[in-house]
Write a structure and sequence with these properties.
By secondary structure, this protein is an all-alpha fold. Helix content is 76%, strand content 0%. Helix 8 runs antiparallel to helix 15, helix 12 packs across helix 13 (223-260) and helix 16 runs antiparallel to helix 17. Keywords: Cell membrane, Membrane, Transmembrane, Transmembrane helix, Transport.
Length: 365
Amino acid sequence: MTTAATELAAGEPAQEDAPARSRRGGGGLGAYILIRFLLIFPTVFILVTTVFFLMRSTGDPITAALGGRLTGAELAQRVQEAGYDRPIIVQYLEYLGNVFTGDFGTTLSDRRPVTEVLATFGTATLELACYALLVAFVLGIPFGRLAAYARDRWPDAVLRVFAILCYATPVFFTGLVLKLVFASGLGWLPVAGRASTRAEIELQFLEDPTGIYLIDAIRLGDPEVIADVLEHAVLPAIALGLLTAGVFLRLVRTNVIGTLGMGYVEAARSRGVAERRLLRKHAYRPALIPIITVIGLQVALLMGGAVLTETTFEWKGLGFQLAEYLQARDFVAVQGIVAMLAVIVAVTNFVVDIIAALIDPRVRY
């Protein structure tokens, strides 16, 4: 008698395996992808709604941005023309409809479409986030592996303190220290900016630029411009990447230690397999799966840290512009940038969830 039949005979429900559930359509990859995709919309909706009402709680955007520069009559006319004298719910529904059609409004401080601001400065933030993730992988994963191998010894203690410091230290303070030591003190790296003036001028003459300086510099084919772009990226990437490196280090360490205690690892150890081989072949790769699942969360962390990093290093991306618009009290621009960041984070989480489900089928059930 089969296992299922035995369980039924005993009055207990048979437990189907994952492939059987997938064939029946329950808990399959398709349903998982659909659910995760549909979750994007309420996530963006909630954040956009929250930001809208928080911005409006201080009054209408025109009064907030231009209240001290216009007469009372001019201000009232601008408010009426923009429709900010209407009931707040009417303004909200109109704004929501515009957002879902891709219209994020026009900035009040420089009269630019918010979509143009997003397109112009979004690539700079994307480039910085990629650099920071690279730093986080290069530092966090090997150090996490080393901490797990040296568990409860002095290297483990040092690396755990390092991880806590990486996560707990404010990004702007890390950036200032890096600038003080490596730019002002030693003079090894540039203080601020995405590239030197000469390199930026050369990149502007490139046909159909992507806005990502490294890609554009490679397309230009000038080794000096490539080196210049990379030199300007080092300090901002380290300042922002250390924030996530601490998370990756702790996560890899915890999961490697947990995997080393699994039954199949103990069986391999009892057969005389060397500890280094156990770590490399049996414990290390499974410990990387949780890293993939938290990348989406770390993207949100990187986007938040990008505001301080870009401001500290004058890296002119969305974070830098967001700080400028907040200072100018340009709430229309702030709403648009935050809404776009919400979309980026939600879509990134969706992609990461799908990758994790493809790598580890247990995720989708």
